Amino acid sequence: xxxxxxxxxxxxxxxxxxxxxxPQARRDIVTGGLIVVLFLLVGWILNLxxxxxxxxxxxxxxxxxxxxxxxxxxxxxxxCVSFAAIALYLSPSALFAAIAILLKARGMELxxxxxxxxxxxxxxxxxxxxPGGMTVYACExxxxxxxxxxxxxERAWNQRGPYFKAWRISILSVALSLxxxxxxxxxFAFTSVxxxxxxxxxxxVAMYMDATPDETRR
Length: 218
Hints:
mainly alpha, globular
């Protein structure tokens, strides 16, 4: 028996419809957009936490998947974990970039470009790996995977076919979310929330659509 009720195929249409598929989902987009507008960074962290909650319910097959942001403290804590993981994964890239900038600005004999290249490579690796690690944490409550970028990368690479498709879906959703800037700029707060939920759905299906009970814990 499958450990969840996820579809066996990741489709573009399902991913794009997921965040607006029910009245509860549409209400979450409105709520998420409003708290971003009103509370900025705190609102963004709350949305990160809510996405983890939604992904966990999606994986377990719990209905309704969208239930608002309550309990707010729990959602905020989950968002802080997500925020900390983003900072951790991107920190090597930021460090290499800072060294490259310092070397170039001071005209030191040591060339700056190897550090610039290392920064770009570290950034690409982190951005590729993060969704996989975050998805495993949300679905399996396995924080050790999120703390270990190597394991997170392995989990993503093992599902690389659908994982790359999830990335293509995510990139297009990010591009479409920029259209929200046309609505006095504020519209982007709401389209970005839609985008985050598309991303959450895409990577959850990509990571687990073929999973068996034994495979989910590898």
